[in-house]
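Request from the bench team (R.T.):
"We need a structural guess for the complex before ordering more adenosine-5'-diphosphate. Sequence and SMILES attached. Just send the tokens back."

Command: build protein-adenosine-5'-diphosphate structure.
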Amino acid sequence: MVVEMKNVYFQAQAQEIVHDFSMKFEDGKTTALVGPSGGGKSTVLKLAAGVIVPSAGTVFFRDKDIWYMNREQNLAFRKESAMVFQDSALWANQSLYQIMELPLKLHFPSMDKKERDERMNDILGRVGYRRQLTLRPAQLSMGEQKLIAFARAMLCDPSVLFLDEWTESLDDASAQHLINFVQERQSQNNTIIFVSHDFRAIKKLADYVIMIIDGSLSQIFTREQIMEDEDLAQRLQEGISP
Ligand SMILES: Nc1ncnc2c1ncn2[C@@H]1O[C@H](COP(=O)(O)OP(=O)(O)O)[C@@H](O)[C@H]1O
Ligand SMILES: [Mg+2]
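Reply to R.T.: structure attached below.
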């Protein structure tokens, strides 16, 4: 098991946002989180990725409680996993170059500048970003910010991906391009958990689809169910709960 969430709750401002959520995410499998807006998908993904602390319950990464890892274990976990946030979460006061450079400096301290630059340019080329790296995030469109956030996430060659609406705000061709990129990661046996309203991505990538409503796990569907049941596929596509 790569990630396991056990009876996880999340509260903020006296409001229960995630309620008794349990789920096991298996090695090499891809899981899509779907459901109505405001239902808690992004919060569940952040809990799974160890970005926010549960109010109750436990999140395990390879059988270790994420919030009780020592520094070394935590660094290894951060290197092995990567997240694309729904709002891209790029640092406003840094150039794109600085934003891209940081994870490489942190996780590959022996890499020299030339190697870092090569790695950055390779990933940026592959995601299709072609503008300058001296720009700051505010100078980019939302779609371009997503490309940079995606490229940053892929820099350290992670094997566990947490992707929140990573094709949102992109034109069709770019979205398709990033879906293909993730499909390539699947063939390398990555474990992927993603939130999407893009039915192309769900249909192409998901082994499992989890419906989240009002902060709770409502239903789990397998790939076969979605492929065979056109009605269900249609409802998922329309974002309506069954
Ligand atoms: N830190 C927080 N403080 C207060 N409310 C929050 C916080 N995080 C999320 N919420 C609220 O929880 C609900 C679920 O949010 P979210 O997980 O982003 O849903 P989704 O991704 O499904 O649209 C929303 O109503 C959101 O406003
Ligand atoms: Mg969201």
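Two things stood out. Residues 3-238 form a domain with the Rossmann fold fold (CATH 3.40.50.300). The beta strands are 3-12, 15-25, 30-34, 56-61, 64-65, 81-84, 160-164, 191-195, 208-213, 216-222.
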